[in-house]
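Subject: sequence -> structure tokens, single chain

Hey, anyone have a minute? Need the predicted structure for the following. Not urgent.
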Amino acid sequence: MVFMKAMKLQEFGKPLQLMESDLPQVLDNNVLVKVDACGVCHSDIHLAEGYYGAREEERLVIRDRRIRLPLTLGHEIAGRIEAKGRAVSAFEVGDTVVVYPWIGCGVCRACRAGFDNLCERPNALGVYADGGYAEYVLVPDPRYVLKYDGLKPEEAGVLACSGITALHALKKARVAPDDVLAIIGAGGVGGMAIQLAKALSGATIVSLDIDDRKLEYAKSLGADFTINSSKDDIGAVMKQALGKRANAVIDFVGSTQTVENAVKILVKGGRLVVVGLFGGILKMQIPLLPILALDIVGSYTGTLTDLNEILQLTNRGVVKPVISTSFRLEEANEALAKLRSGEVKGRAVIKP
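Reply:
Had a minute. Here:
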């Protein structure tokens, strides 16, 4: 019998535990991936805690009955094919692959349209099925693994969430070359969005954060202007620096305060794309919506097509994932703690 190690969530709000289990059985259409690296995402924190939102009175408790514990977290996975089912012909054992973790049912309307990430009956790795905080991960269908080369595994892995989330949100923002794009949050996903927007849109990019160190990081990635939203009057700074408001805002934090800030700096007819899951309550005077003609939309991860695109862009050097810290598998709780406290610049990864 072959065993594997994994860091499992046994109870919401409790530390992950290192556990041993049997290696998953590989059926005809499955692919078993030996994990080389798995990114640590803010949504892992929300899942581990069992809720979204910092303030207790505004928390959204995770009530999804499909989430069953114990669960191995982690959805930004890159590794090598360890084994494959008899029906898998497009891959060979040893191939280096990045895993698309947003597994869909394949038959609902969203899946048929190519939006597995919006599946009505999702089976996402690290959320509904065991993910990458482990030595191995079982992928149910080979269509969800993509070959890669020329990248480090930690760089390839983070593209499966950080990369596609940034790219998908940028598409929804519909930014024109002469637009002003404000990006709220200069963490791993926000940093990727700055790089993508700089390379693909031609827009003037404003980065907003509450941490001066992260704003320096944003500037190094290509942000044209930075604003510390905890210190500055963001509307006044925008007016002084640019003479106009933002045509689009992408909010990678997703809190009451950041959404309110976004509305303050948008032009009439502007677009707000909310991505972050920090939590809170959307407070807004309803007449402002028609008066300002704002588009407010949500954006959740990205598609398999997005992953193909971001892999190509990364291989061409258009963007480069920033990996700041690596942790061993048994240090997963430390990785989550450092991310929670804001100590991680770019992305942290776990390397089993």
